[in-house]
Amino acid sequence: MMKEEVDSGCSIMMVVVEMTKLRMLTCDHPVPLDRYNDRIGVVQYQKVLVNALIERWHPDTHTFHFPIGDCAVTLEDVALLLGLPTDGLPITGMTMSSFEALEAECLLQFGVAPRKSDCKGSGIKLTWLWDLKENLELTDKIGIQRYVRCHIILLIRMILFGDKSGAGVHWKFLPLLHDFGSIGQYSWGSECLAHLYRALCRASHFDCKKIDGPLTLLLGWAWIRLHIYRCFLGNPTVSTSKQIILRYNVPHGDRRYRYLNLAHFRKAFDELQEGQFVWVACAVDCVDPNIILVKIYMQSVVWSATVPLVSFECIEWHATDWYRRQFSFVQGVPYQERNLDKAHGEVLTGPKNLNWTIAPSHSFWVMHWTNRYNHVLIELSMPSQHPLDTYMYWYRTKFGDRLNLSNLVVQENDEGNQDMDDDNEEQEP
Questions:
Q1: Using the 8-state DSSP alphabet, how is residue 158 labeled?
Q2: How far apart are CA 59 and CA 275, in angstroms?
Q3: Sheet with strand 168-170: strands edge to edge
Q4: 293-301: long-range contacts (C-beta < 8 A, 24 or more apart)?
Q5: Strand runs (DSSP E) across 126-195, as ranges?
Q6: Do residues 122 and 348 make contact, with C-beta atoms less than 8 angstroms apart?
Q7: Residue pLDDT tens, the chain, 429 long
Q8: Taking the CA atoms of the chain, what radius of gyration do you get in angstroms?
C-alpha cells in the first residue's frame, strides 16, 4: 500500500479534532481565528444548554420544536463542522457477538488479538487499543497501517460515535477499515448524525438521566445557529461542574455575574424570534475556503435529502421536509412524521449475529439511503401567497403545548440536567 493511501484513509478521521475547533465559529462570526481556542474550552460545560435542547427534541419528527418553527442538525452541519464525507456508502454490515469472531478480526487488522479480559461483550477496551497504538513500530507499511487503524477506531469511540457502553468500542467498525482506499467512500457524516439523533431520542424519554453521542456537533450547531447562545457565552469568566458563571455587560457599563441554569435557556427558547435563529448559516460564497474546503461542497447535493440515516443497528430519520428553510426553500406544511417502526430504537444487546444490510427490519431503510438522490428537496409551488403564515398556524396548532416550557415544573438533580457521557454505565455493546 502506498503512503498516499495511508494518508487518505487516516485523514478522513484525523481532520475531526483540529477542524472542529476552527469550524465551530467560522460561519457568520467576526472573531479572529486566533481567539477561537479560548472559547472552545467552555463548550464542555454546557450541560444546561444540552438539557434545554433535549426538552425541545421530538423523537417522532426528529426536530427541535421552537416558537419560530422546526429545525434540526443536518448533514450540511456535519459536513461544515466536522469535515466528514456525507455522501457515499451506508455504514452497515455484519455484527458478531462471539469472542472468536472479534479475535479473528483483530488478528487480521492488528496482527495481535486481545485477551478476553481486554474485551467487554463485543467491545474492545480502549486501554488495549491505546497500549497497542503506543507500542506499534512504524518501520514498515504494515506497522503504519495498524497504527492508523488504531487511531481511527479511537477517534470513532472518543469523538464521533461515543456511547454509554463504558471504556470500549464495538469491533463492528473494524471491517470497514480493511481497504484504506475505500474508507473515504463511506458516509461517515450520516453515521455521526444518526448517533446524535439516537442520543437525543433516548435522552428525550422522561426516565433517561444520561446522554452520549457527538455532543461537540450539537454544541457547534447551537453556537452557529442560535444567536441567544452567543449572547450567553459572550464573555465567559468562570466555569464549574454544576452551573456556569458568566460576566456580561448591562446598561451603564456595570459588570455583574450571572448564574445560568435551565430556566434561563427555557425562557430564551420560549421567546426565540425570527432573526435569532440562523436558517442559512454557511453559504458557499461567504466562507473561508482555507477552513471549509471547496471539495466539501461537492457532496452538498445530498444535504437536503429526506432519507434515513444508517449506522448498523441504528436508523434515524433526516426529516428535511420539516425544516426546508435551512436549505433556503419555502416552508409549507410537511408530510406526516415518518414511522421507522422496529428499526427505531434497536440496540446491540445480547447475541446479534446479523448482517444489518439485509436484515428484515433494516434492508428497506438501507435501500432508501441508496436512492438518496431521488429524495433531495426541490422548491414546491405554493398556492397561498403567504405559505409561511399557513405553516406557522398549522405548526402552533399542532405543537403549541411544546413551545412554552418556562413554567415547566420537574424534579431535577443538583445540576438541573441529564449528565453527559463520561463513565456512566449501560448495556454491553
A1: I
A2: 26
A3: 119-120, 123-125, 168-170
A4: 293/83, 296/79, 296/80, 296/83, 299/79, 299/85, 299/86, 299/87, 300/76, 300/79, 301/87, 301/373, 301/376
A5: 168-170
A6: yes
A7: 444 444 444 443 333 433 333 333 333 333 333 333 333 334 444 788 899 999 999 999 999 999 999 999 999 999 988 888 999 999 999 998 888 989 999 999 999 999 999 988 888 999 999 999 999 988 888 999 999 999 999 888 887 777 666 678 888 999 999 887 888 899 999 999 999 999 999 999 888 888 888 988 998 899 889 887 666 655 444 333 333 333 333 333 334 334 567 888 898 999 999 889 999 987 666 667 776 777 788 899 999 999 999 999 999 999 999 999 999 999 989 988 899 988 898 888 777 889 999 999 999 999 999 999 999 999 876 666 678 889 999 999 999 888 989 877 554 443 444 555 443 333 333
A8: 22
225-251 per-residue burial string, b: 16 or more CB within 10 A, e: under 16:
bbbbbbebbeebeeeeeebbebebeee
Q: Which residue has the cell 456512566?
A: 424
Place of cell 401567497: 385
Check residue 335 and report its DSSP letter.
P
On whether the CB atoms of residues 279 and 66 are closer than 8 A, the answer is no
Grid cell locating 348:
446491540
Q: Which cell numbers in the block locate residue 256? A: 455583574
**CA geometry: angle at 266 spanning 260 and 267, to 5°?**
90
